[in-house]
Amino acid sequence: MEVVMSRTVRLGVAVAAAAALVAVLALAANTATTRGHLAVAGGGLSLATAAVLWATANARRRPRTPDVPEPSPRRHAFVSYSRSDIGYVRRLVEFLREFHIDVWMDNQIPNGTRWDQVLKEKIDTAAVVVLVMSPSAEESDWVNAEVDRARAQGKPLLPLLLKGNVTFGLSRIQHEDVTGGRMPSTDFVRLLRELTDGEQPPRSVPPPDNAPRRLLPIPSAKHVDVGQFLAGLAGSRHRRIDVLIGIDESGKSTLLRKLVMDYRDQGDEVRYLDLSLIDWHQALLTQPAASVVFIDHLDRITEGERFRVAFDIFDRVLPALFSAGLSRLILALSTDWRAGFTEVYRLPPEVMLNKAMPDVPFEAHYLRTYSDEELTTLCDELGLDADEFRDVSLRRAGVLAMASNTSEQWPHATPSRIRDILAARWIEAGNGSLDRDARRAMWELVGALTLRGELFVLGLEQLAHLLGDRFDRAHLRAQIGGPLRWEAEHVEPDSPAWADLAAARALRSVIGERTTTPIITPLRTSVLDTLRDLYDPGDLTTQIDRKLTSIAGADFTAMGYLGPVLATLRAHLSPGQLLVFRDLSLQGPDHSEVRTIGPQVAAAVEEALLHAMRRSLPDLVGMLNDVPPGERSAYRGGSRIWLTARAWASELPLRASAESTLAELLPNDSSWRYEDILDIAVTGATTKLMDGNATALHACLSGRHDSAEQYLADVWDGVNDGAWDQIDATTRAYVASLDLPPAMTGSLTAIDCRLQRAHLGAQDVQAWRLIDCELLLADFRSCTNVELADFSGSNWWAAILPPPARYHLSRSSTDPRFLAWCTAPPWSNPYYTSQWPTPFD
Questions:
Q1: How far is Cα 768 from Cα 789, in angstroms, rounded to an integer?
Q2: Mutual orientation of helices 433-451 and 496-512 as an angle, nearest 10°?
Q3: CB atoms < 10 A from the CB of 781, how many?
Q4: Can you tell me the distance from the alpha carbon of 451 to that of 502, in angstroms, rounded to the nearest whole number?
Q5: Within 10 Å of residue 659's Cβ, how many Cβ atoms?
Q6: Beta strand 579-582 with 523-524: parallel, antiparallel or unpaired?
Q7: Separation CA 226–CA 250 (nearest Å)
Q8: Torsional class of 784: left (φ above 0), alpha (ψ -120 to 50), beta (otherwise)
Q9: Element (H, E) at 776
Q10: In angstroms, rounded to a whole number, what is the distance separating the alpha carbons of residues 410 and 408?
Q11: Which backbone phi and psi does 101 adopt, to 5 degrees?
Q12: What DSSP string describes 517-536?
């Protein structure tokens, strides 16, 4: 019988024969059968098999006929959840169905059907039950009944922790953390596929048929939108290779899945291979052929020698498939993996692939981040705030797509939440458990060091040592990427925002742990902002209240800044609620911790401040002249003169003038603080300014309702307070004492608390109760009705009060401690005409 072979089949058989010959020659070349010979022989035989299968499949292929999958005995995954988590669950189900996992949730129950019967049947026939854990799920009778039924039927239970703590009774079952609304890891997806697929071998994972057709533009070095360019090549029968190279979340995977649909629409026979979920041997050597192949996540092949495997694929497997009839290849690579491959083989992978097939047209697309103009335009279209995505780690197509994909569970995708998902994906993308362990360890170390006030800027030796020498240096270097970068022979966070995220995670652990870990340095307020973005405020409030109760009675030397941090966070979480603090250390450092500044330094700073004040003195005089003459002095209950002088001083470049002077006089070693230097220097500069311009100031303050001396005292207080406003604005970038929101609608009760240097915002404090509290330098200057608060047993006179409140309280107080303070006050206004408690009587 005559056998007629097509050109494709003949070519495939020829390649197969050549590959087999390579294997035989390799074995015959030397009688010593080395590992290298076996590798070549095995590779040659595999290529032979691949070429024959591919060629045969191409010979039988009929144009435009879609693959019809065989019926399979696959069973579904049942999702158990609370209705309050429906937004997240919908996204989860959509995500899992992208991987062709049969997922069932209760929105599929037909109308008129008994719910309990359907739920029981679906649990009984399920291959596995996925439990979405949250406080509301733990309280749900339906969820508890579903879990009980699953256990009674012996069903595997895969819990996902969305919010709160692990459900009671399930702590011994391994769960996956998806807090913040992130999707489960590839390991979870792989396990779920195995449980639902039965004994079937893993298959390639095509994108869902209902995937969104619109794709954000993905810019490259050459194309404004590389996706649009590649989509325009759909339907072409010319041979071609395109390689997408970009950082994580630059949109590579989303683009590949979108292109699959575009190419199918043009009649191409397409295969999409996600090598993080399927075995590459089966995907490339035994699967049915196609005219166009998309390969994603080559960098996540789960074999130990992943670069060698990739080398074999580039050097032998893909050339053999092209020889056997493949016409188009579109491949995605991450920049971090590409750098590792290049370091091993001294040749970038895209160059190696091009050299292996020099006759196939080739283009590498180096994806880039959005420019400022592109970012602004896209954010306007998507309804996002472009300023929130200026960070280079966020101005990517994948990130903006994620941020715009709002839901009931995640109504606003904040940068902190997005970074948290990106960090989790970077860890999950590790090639095997050892890689993931190393990445997780580095990420946790970033958080621990940042929480301790230490910079995470480490060389490999130091990094390995801090990680207990569990990982070798080369392995750690290979894992650096995602939120970390390699810069000048050390690893560091890609930006301060990543360090804040890691510290927020570490702080959350401190709050939840039963033991107590002190915080030994002031903490950036941005860490607290990040923490509030990440977690449910109700759950976080409950945890903080429990922690504050556990540290009651501990002093500053034992807890450091933990008390101020927790109390500040608690206040910002619930600004409309009554705050109650008992026996807590909420203060900043004692003055004894600050290095003494010499008179020469203080004099130099004072002169710099005085120079800045003198240039703007005419503005101050003009502003004071605008105050109506009937306004009372602060001593008589008025505030306009004091507020006017404060507003003038707060706009002067006082801090900048002081910093430029200090930079030449003091080392930047954190052993001194601007606020303590300026607090001394501002007082002297203000006095000299007013003494030197006494005539002009006296003229504009005379002839008013009260004496000129009282108004001059108001000016002196106001200038000092205005200078402190701008000093304080910078120091409050850190939480060094209790720091309340600018305006709370709730009230505060503090009993037996240490509140030194507390920042108390701009509150109406008439209902506050501060009983037996230490208030040294506690800042009430912007608060109202201070004189109406209950200060029983507290040293209010040591606090920083608005002058009207200070004078009112001083006239009415009979506290012997205050009267003793009046005999030798630590500071005095040069315009007082008598002593405390009645400085103008």
A1: 5
A2: 90
A3: 21
A4: 9
A5: 16
A6: unpaired
A7: 12
A8: beta
A9: none
A10: 6
A11: -95, 130
A12: --B-S-EEHHHHHHHHHHS-
DSSP H stretches of helix in 519-616: 525-534, 537-550, 556-559, 562-573, 599-615
| Beta strand segments in 238-352, E | 240-246, 270-274, 292-296, 328-334
Which helix (H) or strand (E) segment is 721 a member of?
helix 708-731
3-class state of residue 644 by DSSP: helix
Strands, sheet with 769-771, edge to edge from the N-terminal-most edge strand:
579-582, 748-751, 769-771
Taking the C-alpha atoms of residue 461 and residue 469, their distance in angstroms, rounded to an integer, is 9
For the chain, the 3-state helix, strand and coil shares in percent, each to the nearest 5, are 50, 10, 40
DSSP string, 465-519: HHTTT-S-HHHHHHH--TTEEEETTEEEESSHHHHHHHHHHHHHHHHH-SS---B
* Cα torsion 107, 108, 114, 118: sign: negative
* Residue 527 vs residues 498, 502, 833: alpha-carbon distances, Å: 10, 9, 48
The DSSP bridge partners found for residue 484 are 493
Q: How many whole angstroms separate alpha carbon 657 and alpha carbon 608?
A: 6
Answer for the pair 153, 136: CB distance below 8 angstroms, yes or no.
no
Give pLDDT, residue 75. 80
Greatest Cα-to-Cα distance within the chain, rounded to the nearest angstrom: 127
* CB-facing half-sphere around the CA of 447: CA atoms within 13 A: 21
Q: What single DSSP character describes residue 167?
A: P
Tell me which residue has tokens 């009778």: 141
Mean pLDDT by 10 residues, the chain (841 residues): 39 43 38 36 47 48 38 73 88 81 75 69 91 90 88 87 80 77 81 69 38 70 92 88 90 88 87 79 71 88 74 91 91 89 91 93 93 91 87 85 60 78 83 86 95 91 95 89 87 92 94 87 92 90 94 91 95 91 86 60 87 93 95 94 95 82 64 57 90 93 94 95 75 84 90 94 94 94 94 95 94 92 88 91 76
pLDDT in the model for residue 689: 93
Measured CA distances, 84 to 110, 130, 163, 411 (Å): 21, 16, 11, 13
Could you tell me which residues come within 8 angstroms of residue 124 by beta carbon, excluding any fewer than 6 positions away? Answer: 149, 153
Residue type, 707: S
Cα dihedral sign for 292, 296, 301, 307?
A: positive
Residue from 726, 724, 756 nearest 739 by CA: 756
Distance CA 64, CA 376 (A): 41
Rounded Cα distance between 583 and 551, Å, is 9
Name the token pair of 253. 């995977």
Closest C-alpha among 237, 241, 192 to residue 93? 192
First-to-last C-alpha distance (Å) of the chain: 127
Vertex 140: Cα angle to 137 and 142 (nearest 5): 110
> Do residues 409 and 181 lie in contact, with contact meaning Cβ atoms separated by under 8 Å?
yes
Exposed/middle/buried for residue 624 (C-beta within 10 Å: 0-12, 13-18, 19+):
buried
Q: For the whole model, what pTM was predicted?
A: 0.69
Q: What is the pLDDT of residue 214?
A: 56
Beta strands 523-524 and 734-735 are antiparallel
* Strands 748-751 and 103-104, bridge-based pairing: unpaired
- Tell how far CA 271 is from the center of its chain: 35
DSSP character for 394?
Answer: T
Tokens 């860490």 belong to residue: 527
What size, in residues, is the chain?
841
